Amino acid sequence: MNKLFSGNLAIREQSRTLFSFILTAGPVTRPMILDHLTLPPTTLNRALDRLVADGLIEESGQAASTGGRPASLFSVRSKARFLLGIALSGQAVSLALLDLGKNGVSQNEFALDGSPGSDEWAVALVKLIVDWVKTIPDARSKIVCAGLALDESLMPSDWSNPLIDRLAKSLSCPVSTEQPIPFAGAIAASDPDNARPIAWVTIGSQLSVRWPDKVRSAGEAGHENAIGRFLMSDPLKLEPFPIVAIEDLVTIGALERRFSLLRDNKDLRIDQYLNAFHQGKKKAVRLAEAAAEALALLFVDIACVTGTTQFLISGELAEIMPELTSLIAEKTPALTSLSGLPIHVSHQDPVVQEKSAVAAARALDRLLNQSDRFKSL
User: Fold this and answer.
1) Long-range CB contacts (within 8 A, 24+) of 62-68
2) 233: how many CB neighbours lie within 10 A of its CB?
3) How far apart are the first and last CA of the chain?
4) Is the whole-model pTM more than 0.70?
5) pLDDT for 255-273, tens place per residue?
6) Where are the alpha helices (DSSP H) in the chain?
7) Are 48 and 15 within 8 A, CB to CB?
8) What distance in Å separates the CA atoms of residue 22 and residue 26, rounded to the nearest whole number?
9) Are 294 and 329 in contact (CB under 8 A)?
């Protein structure tokens, strides 16, 4: 079992009290701690020594001198342990790894096939989480707690406790869950039967996509990031050639380069392009329409090959230019007859991705506030 504090019950309680104070108020000196906590000096020194020995606390300099020897400052070593957040929404799984300072270490989103709550689904979910944690150096041995956030479509039921127990055993740490958290733009709201395959498209400095395993295993086209090198003609050109990679048509860098060429000014940047677009400048608007058309055509191609009919769009460009998602959604229906599939395009609210981080932070709060009676609920 990965533990945050070592020692017997009394030592763990002392460590928890002291650690919580330093985490909140640090860097602090011994006199500062004694002013705020009812710990005898000998107990304080013993607890500090224990936290330093466990690698949770470190000396981080010296306070300003008041005439005598400067007092040592103590701070939390935030990278010493990790917290894991898990957010579930329909087929979407969002994972976040945080350090003790609740700073993000790594985050990712995945699609998980199957019926939520089934034994097969739970096994696949735990495997997905453990496999992802293994990709982060030393993470598995340093995770001291995990938080699980559920959306309204996954109300805690008979399957939730066995799932939490399974997660706790696999991660070797306590796992807690709160009341279901509403997910903005939840997949379940638009597709309550979870019947449509889903693709998560990220548009920023790069262009990438993630599919459920059943789609990804269908062939090379399902491999993550393969979307960026997908070849197609430039919608701005009247002739079908030259064929270029779509990441050269629809990324932040691509829009900068293409707008600079249209304006014959090599130094134009994305903010200047966005200003021109929002002012309704013809060249800027046409460029946005071409980018949206390129992605709409690609989505139709993907739908024909994989059966994917729902595309959720996020990423830096999607956030600073939400109109791009709207343009793609407008252009896709006109192309639907090519695939015969009801393709749906929508914006992936970043709030959904943050739920996993919130769950991790709450798990640490519970771990620190509920003493050794903290359990997997």
Assistant:
1) 63/29
2) 15
3) 17
4) no
5) 999 999 989 887 889 999 9
6) 9-25, 30-36, 41-53, 119-134, 139-142, 160-171, 187-190, 213-216, 252-263, 270-278, 282-306, 316-320, 323-339, 350-369
7) no
8) 5
9) no
